[in-house]
Amino acid sequence: MKQKISVVINTLNEEWNLPYAIRSVHSWADEIVVVDMYSDDRTVEIAKQYGAKVYFHERIAAFDAARQFAIEQASNEWILILDADEEISPNLAMSINDIIQEDQFDVIELPRANLALSGFAPLESGFPEYHKRAFKKKFVKDGYKGKIHTFFQFTPAARITKITASYPDMCVRHYTSPTVSTFFYKINRYTSVEAVHRYNSNMNNAMLIALLIFRPLKTFLIHYVKRQGFRDGWRGFWLSMIFFIYELMTVAKIWEIKDNCGHQPTDDGALERMREHVKSRSRKSV
User: Fold this and answer.
1) Domain spans of the chain?
2) Which of 20, 81, 127, 168 could join 122 via S-S bond, C-beta 3.0 to 4.6 A?
3) Where is the Glycosyltransferase 2-like domain (predicted)?
4) Which CATH number applies to 5-175: 3.90.550.10, 2.60.40.420, 3.30.390.50, 3.40.50.720?
């Protein structure tokens, strides 16, 4: 009996990327499920044009937390998780289908190539980056909580296999952050989520200083030196620096939460605090 697969895509304002993602799976996926966070553009319209089943989820900062809901909408046992800015290469699609039809494994680790800043820095990005993206949903652990930059955990009984990578023919092609501007737009959102996860109410100033010194430098050295991102030229350097800044921003936002008594401030709330500060200083000077 043919094993059927559902491709699951979570979206938020992805009208430019979504057609490419869907076209990369449209000819062989038995079902395409798109879970949208009330996009402001044509994302939903495009999904429907390609015959995808469309569902909605409230907008949340930790984007990964909506994946469980998306999986629950799929009608097939086999699931392929695909981001809207990703494409499955034709050769990878054939390998995925072969493994599924042989039915000897329950989880497939897929190689991913992260393209950014108008090109590809294979060393800095750590190609191939592997993710367990195709699986039988009954092997996903119950109670999974979405956490940024993670996918799913699986039961010990799951039989796992890995597809050997080659670029660009055998990998998930991840078109992330084509420009510096889009990269910083994304990391502003990601670091806010990261800061909440890392925040510890017992964190003191010494711990923050240690984080400030250690984590950004460690991240830069991993990307630029350990992975030999310097061999990727200026693209490798700037990507390594952006990840350095990512860690700086995360630590700054942890401090910001600490400074706001354990709460992540809103712009309105922060403005009100500044105005109160001015008022209090004005009363003292009178």
Assistant:
1) 5-175, 180-282
2) 127
3) 6-107
4) 3.90.550.10
